[in-house]
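Subject: Protein entry, chain in single-letter code together with its fold tokens

Category: Structural biology, sequence-to-fold work with a learned token vocabulary.

Notation: Tokens come from a learned vocabulary of local backbone shapes, not from coordinates.

Start of record: The labelled sequence and token lines come straight after this line.
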Amino acid sequence: MPTRQRPAEDVVRHEAQLVGLRKVITPERDMFATVAVGSSVLPGMSEDAERYFRDLYDHLIRLSDLVDSYRDLLTSAVDTHLSNVSNRLNVVMKQLAVIATVFLPLSFLTGFFGQNFAWLVGRLTSPEAFVGFGIGTEVVVFALLMMLFRKRHWLSS
């Protein structure tokens, strides 16, 4: 079973095909414009042939306009896709920033209480008070950060 390309790749491929079509149609349109207007004279040109060339010129103008409009549509599709990708990236970056913001003060407090300051050890008389103070400050900081994030609507998608 052949593998399916991603839609963004299809759009880019089609856009390249439209650019190639435009490179072919535009010179032909310009060439038929000189014949249809009568600025260049072709030997043996009859009135029927002139009408035929004018008709070809009209078709080439329509094709050129269609190619340009399809190219604009594909460009808009690519822009929309890139906008969606950017929005998803912004959501991920916001989530990572929240996680980093939560762990920064917790890491600081853990490092602070891991240094065994004589002042801190002398003031806390029991192991329960030391553990309660050490873990309690981290819980309080975490709770304050969560309240701040909810207030600013950072935790909702």
Notes: Residues 106 and 139 are 9 Å apart (CA to CA). Helices lie at 7-37, 47-113, 118-123, 127-151. The first helix runs from residue 7 to 37. The chain has one domain: 7-151.
